[in-house]
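User: Last request for today: this protein with adenosine monophosphate, please.
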Amino acid sequence: MKLLIIGSGGREHALLWKLKQNPRITECYVAPGNAGTGTMAINVPIEATNIAGLLQFAQEKKIDLTIVGPDDPLAAGIVDQFQQAGLRIFGPTAAAARFEASKSFAKDFMKRHGIPTAASETFTSSEKASDYVRQAKYPLVVKADGLALGKGVIIAQSAEEALTAIKEMMEEKVFGAAGETVVIEEFLTGPECSLHALIDGKNYLLFPDARDHKRALDGDQGLNTGGMGTISPSGLGVTKSMRARLHYEIFVPFLSGLADEKIKFQGMLFPGLIITKDGPKVLEFNARFGDPETQVLMRRLYSDLLELLEATIDGKLDTVSPWWDERPAVCVVLASGGYPGPIEKGKPITGFENVTDPNVVVFHAGTKQVEENIVTNGGRVLGVTALGRTLEEARQAAYAAADQIQFEGKQLRRDIGELKFK
Ligand code: AMP
Ligand code: GLY
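Assistant: Here's the final one, the structure of the complex with adenosine monophosphate:
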């Protein structure tokens, strides 16, 4: 079987690492990939957003299954185009990817179907949005409607901050068309957790819970990033009774809402949750695997991933029941100095050979092979991922390995998995 994975992050390396365990897979391509994927598959220099180029490649190579990592090609309709060409592909169509690509669409859907979420208003006029925030209570959350690389969410402490956010998004268009519409919502408090569930149109299959660490610096300080590290389980104690609430309050109305509105969603649904004192609420929906959540989830998945992805595409998720490793996993991201701001690329990375602990896998993200060297090539560079009998053991293994790897400007958080909830 010939596989094509689209993307170049730690998520794609982790998916490839897991999929390669299946002997049915004989040929594997990653577009565009990174130095890590290049050791396990053939990297193809086609960008993830170049849908025409990817389609042509998949047709020429007679790819049997394509798996899409990032959000942009999904929102741009890569799945629709591959399906029209008769190719098998994992991910939601553009219409279904709107759950991530349009926050107002996701909020309206949740309101229509009674899925718990922060109260919100949507605005397409900056004047009306400004009038609204002048008489609102603070803090207040201002969100660009579209995809904004995780930077489109501003937690405003005052009307002044909210007005600045509205001006930047709606008038100065710092996020382009993504900020022409804004969603303004109530500020919620509580610990956050990442859920992942495969959706085949009718059934869902919930993965173990995970927790991201979005801020750049220890103690949840600094700017929001794509994620500086993850743990699974989340440490929030997603018990049987919490799972029952998630089932009845989120997944059942989500699936029946899809049926009512004739939306065909097949792929990964990744709700970002906040556990408030009134129960779990959805902060956002993503329509893809999380990064770096996928790194810890793939370390914990015992069963075959290919079987799960195929069952999703074939509408047969009710026939699979994967096994998960009971042991906790920790992923510590090594980032380039300055991330999430401007960074320098091309710094040689050394010390991979010193990571010998069999419980540790180093997933590559922003890395590139240049002759004999592996050099940095992005904000998030590596995801050092460890299993342990306890969370503490996994943390120690991940940090011991993270300390073996060096590159100029290396930046990491030291508190991934320290369970302190505000
Ligand atoms: P989102 O991209 O919508 O998940 O937002 C990114 C981050 O902003 C979340 O992980 C939260 O930490 C924070 N956030 C988003 N919406 C809210 C909200 N309504 N109340 C409090 N924090 C929020
Ligand atoms: N780690 C958060 C995300 O993938 O959106």
